[in-house]
C-alpha cells in the first residue's frame, strides 16, 4: 500500500499515456477505408440531390447543413473521425457531379427541379 502512496504520480502518468494511446487507436481504427469513402461519396450524390429537391437552388449553406445532418445519421462512426473540411470537399465533388447529371438528363432534372417537361 505504501508503494501506491509513494508512486501515485507514476500511476497517474501511466494512466494518462494509456488513455492517449487508446484515443489514437480509436481514431485510427475509425478512419474509413477507400471502399467506404467511395460508398460515402456515392451516397453524398444522393443526399445532395435530395437536398436540392427539398431546398431548391441558392441555399448553399443550408443545403450543406442538411446533407451533414443526413451524413451524421447515416454514418455516425465515420462522422466522428472525418473532419468537416474533408466532408465539405466531398460534398463539393458530389455537387459538381449532381450539376452535370442535372444538365445532361432531363428526366432527373424534372424529378429534382420539377419545372422541366420531359419528352417521351
Helix-strand string:
HHHHHHH
Strands, count? 0
State the share of residues found in helices, binned by percent. over 70%
**Total tally of structural domains:** 2
Radius of gyration (CA) equals 23 Å
Output the number of helix runs. 7
N-end to C-end Cα span:
85 Å
Proportion of β residues?
under 5%
Question: What's the SSE blueprint?
Answer:
Layout: H1 2-6, H2 8-30, H3 34-55, H4 60-74, H5 76-81, H6 84-104, H7 106-112
Features:
120 residues; mainly alpha; 2 domains; rod-shaped
Describe this structure in words.
This protein has 120 residues and is mainly α. Helix content is 82%, strand content 0%. The chain starts with a helix and ends in an 8-residue tail after the last helix.
Summarize the structure.
With 120 residues, this protein is mainly α. 82% of the residues lie in helices and 0% in strands.
